[in-house]
Amino acid sequence: MKCKNLLCIFICVGYPLMSFCQTTSSDSTILQKKIVLPNEQSYHIGNGKIFIYTKPKSFSFLTNLPKDFVGIAKAPFKKNAVKPVLLVAASTALLVLLDQPMIDGVEKFSNNIHLNADENYKDILNIKMGKTDISLFKAPKNINTALYQLGQGFPSLLIGAGLFTYGKIHKDYRALSTANQLAESFIVMGVGTQFIKRITGRQTPVAATQRGGAWHFFPSFKNYQTNTPNYDAFPSGHLATLMSTVTIFTENYPEKNG
User: Are 194 and 221 in contact (CB under 8 A)?
Assistant: First the structure.
């Protein structure tokens, strides 16, 4: 799959919609107050602000999911959501109209700097099951593949696993809460983007039969599964995953932003 085309599509159409969804996808355990209870931990983040965390409940990243999905469904209909919804709709419509010229520009620039458009990996860790080799870990062999892999979720999952391990060892509630929110957001983003993809049915650039790609609304389950690139360009699950990860880190570690 040609990463440079996908990267441009992600920028064009994925961010406005999913950034709005991300604001409602997970309930933060962060509070700001002066009194810290025995079962809480406080973190000074500067400017006189203190974040206070309680220990996350086991599997709360799963038990919170029903509330998350209900919150996302209700969010666009709240009174204070009118302006954000209109902004998302307008910016998304504008970027959809402009994304083909942007793709053309990205392709031209990429060709000028000889940027390889194909995914290219090197297997690092394999296991053999019968006659089949299964790759457990593969490393990108070019810049484009590395950029594409950022949105695959593996780097974010690796960071989340590291935070979880650190939190368990050092009994750090903030690290545990952040890892919990990451796991929660991956599930919500995965379900949310797949749901919308299966409604919009937009062609990816590599499968496009017309400039900008055709839209096949409500493709059949069979068609979607057998010819996925013909239907799954909008919205971008890669960018949704990347942006949700950045958002969660920003909210939980604001003192690291500088």
Answer: no
